[in-house]
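Example record for the data management plan.
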Amino acid sequence: MPAFSSGSITVTAAVIQRDDTFLLTRRLAGTHLEGHWEFPGGKCEPGETLSACLLRELEEELGCRARIGECLLSTRHAYPERIVDLHFFRCELVGEAAPRIGQQMRWVPRNELRTLPLPPADSALIELLEGQQGARASRRGEGPGARSQGCLRDRA
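Corresponding structural encoding:
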């Protein structure tokens, strides 16, 4: 089954951790959710697996390779202009990341994640990373158009 489906876009994102900080990039002006900070990644091409998509996006955006680890969370979010199926994977950088398309990049401490403007689709992941998922697990994915689910692995 292809990672791409009509009616929605499939997106992968890398959760890259160094000590107690996470690598985030800022969306460029003129893009969907411009100015928001996000975990690096991007849209899957038709027929592309989730892992292949994430490896390609990290090379294009940050000029580095990565080891793709476990899927932390898969979620679907309905924005007014599109539906996004988002898959977050734990990743380890191979080499140093450097912005290649003019975006800002920074390492953000865990306790500062909520201080930045982040896409609404990232809320369940932030909750998970903050270690608050236990008390709020039944609420994960609440909100307009949001739905969280277990992780999905590669689909060819």
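Summary line stored alongside the record: The two ends are 6 Å apart (CA to CA).
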